[in-house]
Amino acid sequence: MECRIGCAACCIAISISSPIPGMPNGKPAGVRCIQLTEDNKCRLFGLPERPLICSAFQASEEICGQSNEEALAILAAWERATSHDQ
């Protein structure tokens, strides 16, 4: 499965502990990555500054569902289920 352009669920729902340009301490769950454009595209896509975790992400139907909204809900639920703040 290819990422749906403009989805950005993985750039919003999940926490990212790696430094991101403009977010040196990473990104909390539920917060838009500072590198997202208004139309939900990554400003760092294809650049060496893009965090490895972002580059390594592989879209799948299990993770991304059938729509952007479903992807956001799935990833948010997984984030809650694996959070250390429970």
Outline, from the CA principal axes? globular
Q: Which regions are unreliable across 5 or more consecutive residues at pLDDT < 50? A: none
- Helix-strand makeup class: mainly alpha
Helix content: 25-40%
- Give the SSE string: HHH
Cα gyration radius (Å) = 12 Å
Instruction: Give the tally of β-strands.
Output: 0
Strand proportion, as a percent range, falls in: under 5%
Main pleated-sheet profile: none
The tally of helices reads: 3
Q: Report the end-to-end length measured between terminal Cα atoms.
A: 32 Å
Q: Provide mean pLDDT, rounded.
A: 94
Provide a descriptive summary of the structure in words.
This is UPF0153 protein. InterPro entries: Puta_zinc/iron-chelating_dom (IPR005358), UPF0153_domain (IPR052572). Pfam families: CxxCxxCC. This protein has helices spanning 52-56, 61-64, 68-82. The chain is an all-alpha fold. The longest helix has 15 residues, at 68-82.
Q: What's the quick description here?
A:
By secondary structure, this protein is mainly α. 28% of the residues lie in helices and 0% in strands.
Chart the SSEs and their pairings.
Layout: H1 52-56, H2 61-64, H3 68-82
InterPro entries: Puta_zinc/iron-chelating_dom, UPF0153_domain
Organism: Xylanibacillus composti
Protein name: UPF0153 protein
